[in-house]
Structure formats: C-alpha cells, structure tokens
Design goal:
The chain is of the alpha/beta class. It is built from 9 helices and 12 strands. Helices cover about 35% and strands about 20% of the residues. The longest helix has 14 residues.
C-alpha cells in the first residue's frame, strides 16, 4: 500500500460533487489500514467548543476570531492562540460547559464512518486540541478506543483560564497530535502508512502528513488542498465511496 499523507504535488480532482481525490491515489480498502485518528471540533462534532463556551460568556466574537485564524494557519503558534483564548474564558462558570454539551451534535455521516472503520478492524483514536469535558462523552458515544485532549483547570466552579498539566504535557497541538498517532501506531505494531488521519484545521496537518491516508472533512482551504481525499459537502461517510470495505 502506498502512503499518501497530506501532499500538494498535484491538484485534487472532483470525482463527485463535493468529493475530491488526489490523482495517483491507489484503490484503497479500509482493511488495509489499522488505525484511524480523528480531530474532534468541527470534524467529529458540529462545533468549535471553545467558541461556544465563549458564547455563553458573551465573548464569542473575540474568541472565534482567534480560532478561525488558527484553523486557517494564519496564527502558526497553536499553543499561543489557545492561551490567548483561554485567558478570555477566565471566570466562566462550569455550568456554561454543561450548556454547550447539551447542544453538541455529531457531524453527518460520522457515526456510519466510524462504525465502518471499527467493523473493518481498525482501532480508533480521538486526538483533539479541545477539551476532555467534551471529548470523553464523544469517545463513549462513538465507542472509540483511545482519546487525548486538553483538560480545563477549574477552581470554585469556574474556569481559571489555564490547562491542567498531564504526564505527557499540557497542550495537545499539531505536533502532539502527530506524536500520539505515531506512538499509538507503533504500540499496535503498525507503520505510519497504515494510519488514516481525519481533520479540518491547520493543526491537523502534522498528523495528516504523517499518515498513509489523509482525509479533509469540510476543511479550511489550506487543509483541503493538501489532503489525499477531501469531502467539501455531505457527510463523512462519503469517504466510504472511495474506501472499499
């Protein structure tokens, strides 16, 4: 199996409306892969959780502007962009997170695509620059095997504007996404070429570039341009029209 990762050697071709495939991508079978890694916000789920937390506090416009710039790759230091956004959430009550969780929905086709991956024997990984408050319910609902995300620090029922230090570090950024995917693949005895990475923002590119197959789902232009397979309309399960069972 030839790895494709995320590369821009030749422009992708629209093989169906809203479904793009890079020329030279060989016929693919899900069973040829062993691990699929997913971004969470705006990939598995229909929102950017940090923006919605900010909305609960009346600060969405300010936070969302930073999120959008980071997703497009206009802010190249993801950790700095996250620190700036978290600072704006200092003092927000935890009840705001509960309100956001109640609105959270899976993106179209996600559950069918994840089920197909699991049915083909792939292990599943959620790796997110978002927060464990949301990633754990998502992991449980989709029955994903592994997850890594950031943990919000809370004192007296309010956000401190910081993250909790973890044994692996503090911030899941693009480099950490790539490292986690490759480390897990190694533990599973898999080469990078047998990994699929699915994302939509600039901080997903490191893991997408390392994977055997990169899938951009309703992604920012810079990400779609570098993916082997891109879905710009419709559900994530459209990938199954390219990936044979």
């Amino acid at each position: 199996m030839t790895g494709n990762g995320a590369a821009a050697e030749s422009p992708a071709q629209e093989i169906e409306p809203g479904l793009w495939l890079r020329p030279g991508t060989p016929p693919l079978r899900l069973a040829d892969f062993g691990l699929v890694a997913f971004d969470m916000d705006s990939t598995l789920i229909d929102m950017e959780c940090i923006d919605e937390i900010a909305a609960e506090a009346g600060r969405k416009a300010e936070v969302a502007a930073i999120t959008e710039a980071a997703m497009r790759g206009e802010i190249t230091d993801y950790q700095d962009s996250l620190r700036r956004r978290l600072a704006l959430l200092r003092g927000v009550p935890v009840s705001a997170l509960d309100a956001v969780l109640q609105r959270l929905r899976m993106n179209p086709g996600v559950e069918r695509f994840v089920a197909a991956c699991r049915g083909a024997g792939l292990k599943t990984l959620l790796v997110s620059g978002g927060f464990t408050f949301f990633s754990e319910p998502v992991r449980q609902r989709l029955q994903l095997d592994f997850a890594r995300a950031n943990t919000l620090a809370v004192e007296a029922g309010r956000l401190t504007g910081e993250l909790v230090q973890q044994p692996w570090g503090r911030v899941v950024d693009g480099a950490e996404k790539r490292r986690v995917m490759l480390e897990l693949a190694d533990l599973l005895g898999l080469p990078a070429a047998r990994c699929i990475a699915v994302g939509d923002g600039a901080n997903d590119l490191p893991m997408m570039e390392a994977a055997g197959l990169s899938i951009a789902f309703h992604a920012k232009p810079a990400v779609q341009a570098r993916a082997a397979l891109a879905i710009s309309s419709g559900g994530m399960d459209r990938a199954l029209g390219v990936l044979r069972a």
